[in-house]
Structures are given as structure tokens and as C-alpha cells.
Design goal:
Spore Coat Polysaccharide Biosynthesis Protein SpsA, Chain A; 319 residues; alpha/beta
Length: 319
């Protein structure tokens, strides 16, 4: 368990909704996110729990005086996304939990709509808003079941032609029952975690997909298009190509191992190895044409090393 410092630990009234935000060196985005909650929450009784993963940009100091409704958990090292969210959920007092990325902004009555939907649909386990890109275009944030086939298609650059994962774009303009939702904004009853557990701390990049997979056993998962949240996608991950690429690929393998057959996992490993080595070969040729290619080449070499450690040494650490 991380060594932490908690400020504002008590509220006068028990909140209805606990909004959990995990932050790491994204102060400006975090402040905008919190301001949007304060601006659009209306008469909703809420608390905000910010779990800071040892930021060095002054994030905790910037929000401590923001509002009495904010708790700050200051980890003394980067505990990771899943573990930090779990810290926030354990501390939460609300009937509902709203997991929210720091690079999001609430718009309109999104929070009220999400709460109302769960109130009116007892068989619904989880609901997510329609996510919008920074330019307000619709962001893909709902998917079908994730399988090893997705990795195979991506390995051979066929995922844009034969998509077994994405719903038709037009469907994202409607409310429907989805298989999985983006972890950038997930709304559910706190009792859900009592029945199925919290985020899998052994995963990264697939922790939200695994969470939805398990939630779907408890009830329906709904994409609510009338509730809108802006997601400045990728802003909070632009820290290291090494970590993002390695974690993404290895977490997929962990997810397939957890929810697929041995044959599927074997095929996924072959696809992963081909995925990494073909990118290394291509980026080696492209490296003279720009520094970005060199950075990505180094990242894939690092990923290959991490892959071998996971495969042969059973190294399950987050990279």
C-alpha cells in the first residue's frame, strides 16, 4: 500500500456520488476537470476524491483549497491507475461512484442524467456517457467484446478494414447496451464493487475492459448518448512511449489469459511477437526521417524486452 497523505477527510453530509479522479502530472487538465464538475453538478450532493500518484507539477497543492468537497490522497510513488482508483473507491462514501479521468470535462447535466438512469433501471450495472473529442466530435468509447482476434487484425494492419471490435459510428449517436465502455468515465453503484470486486491491479490499459467484462455478469452496461463528457484523449498518457506501448500490449495478453482459452492465448502471443518485431523493422527504416521514429523504435525495443520478461520470467509487474 502506498504511503499517503489525506486532506479534507470528512464531509458534513454523506454524498450521493463519489467522483474518483486519478492524477499524475496533469495539473491544468485536473483543474479544468474539477471546475467542470463544480460548474455542472447543480444540486447533486457529491464528493471529489483525487488520488495523486506522486505528481511533481504542484497538482495536490493547486486543488487543496479548491473546495471543501474535495479529498486529496497523495501517494508517495506512482501506484498505477488501477491501484489508485481502488484507493479512491475504498475511501468513497457515496451510493454511486463516478470514475473520471483528469483529462475530461463535464458538460450540461451529464452527472444528473447518469444518476437518473441508474435510479430508473435497477437491472443496469454500469452506465457511461457519450465521450466527445476536444473538437466536440464523437469519440469512440464503447466496444464489443475484446478478443485475441482484435490483436491479430491489428498486427497485420487489418483492423481498419475488418473491425470485430467497434460498433458502427451511427450507433454512438444513440443509447444502447454495450459490451464494454471507456474507463475515462464510468458511473455505477458502489454496491457493484462489493459483489464483483474493484479494478484488477495487474492490468494497465485493459483494466476498464476487464471491469466492464465482470460488470456485465451483474447487469447491463449502457452507453447513454444524451449525457456528454469531453475527453481530451491521450493527454494524461503522453509521458512515455516506452510505458504506454509496453503496458498496452502486455496487458492485452494478461486479459486474454484471464478470459480466453489456452489456444486463443497461444495465438495472441504469436501475434504480439510479430506485432513488436515488424514495428521494430519498419521504424528502423524510418528512423532517419524524424526523431519521433527513433523514440518509437526505442519504445518497441523496450517492449520486446518486457515481453520476454513476462513470457519467460512470469514478470507481472506494471512496466
Amino acid at each position: 500500500m502506498a504511503s499517503i497523505n489525506i486532506t479534507n477527510p470528512n464531509l458534513e453530509n454523506k454524498p450521493d456520488i463519489s467522483i474518483v479522479i486519478v492524477s499524475y502530472n496533469v495539473k491544468e487538465l485536473l483543474l479544468k476537470c474539477i471546475s467542470s464538475v463544480v460548474s455542472f453538478a447543480g444540486d447533486v450532493n457529491y464528493e471529489i476524491i483525487v488520488v495523486d500518484n506522486n505528481s511533481v507539477d504542484g497538482s495536490p497543492e493547486a486543488i487543496k483549497g479548491h473546495s471543501g468537497k474535495i479529498h486529496v490522497i497523495e501517494n508517495k510513488f506512482n501506484a498505477g491507475f488501477s491501484a489508485a482508483n481502488n484507493q479512491g473507491m475504498r475511501m468513497s462514501k457515496g451510493e454511486y461512484i463516478f470514475l473520471l479521468n483528469p483529462d475530461t470535462e463535464i458538460t450540461g447535466d451529464a452527472i444528473q442524467q447518469l444518476k437518473k438512469y441508474l435510479n430508473e433501471h435497477k437491472n443496469c450495472a454500469m452506465v457511461g456517457p457519450q465521450l466527445l473529442n476536444s473538437d466536440k466530435s464523437i469519440q469512440i468509447s464503447a466496444w464489443k467484446n475484446h478478443t485475441f482476434i482484435d490483436l491479430v487484425l491489428e498486427t497485420f494492419f487489418l483492423n481498419r478494414i475488418f473491425s470485430a471490435l467497434n460498433y458502427p459510428v451511427g450507433k454512438l449517436k444513440t443509447t444502447f447496451e454495450a459490451k464494454t465502455l471507456s474507463g475515462a468515465a464510468l458511473f455505477f453503484r458502489k454496491s457493484l464493487t462489493d459483489s464483483m470486486g474493484m479494478l484488477d491491479e495487474n492490468l494497465f490499459w485493459m483494466e476498464d475492459i476487464d471491469f466492464c467484462y465482470r460488470a456485465h455478469i451483474q447487469g447491463s452496461i449502457i452507453y447513454l448518448h444524451t449525457a456528454q463528457v469531453v475527453h481530451h484523449s491521450g493527454q494524461s498518457q503522453k509521458k512515455s512511449y516506452n510505458l504506454s506501448i509496453a503496458n498496452q500490449l502486455i496487458s492485452k495478453l494478461k486479459y486474454y489469459k484471464k478470459h480466453s482459452t489456452m489456444a486463443a492465448v497461444f495465438i495472441a502471443h504469436i501475434a504480439c511477437f510479430i506485432f513488436i518485431t515488424t514495428r521494430i523493422a519498419a521504424l528502423s527504416l524510418l528512423m532517419p526521417f524524424g526523431p519521433i521514429y527513433k523514440l518509437k523504435l526505442q519504445a518497441y525495443i523496450y517492449t520486446l524486452q518486457r515481453y520476454f520478461m513476462y513470457l519467460f520470467l512470469n514478470d507481472k509487474r506494471l512496466t
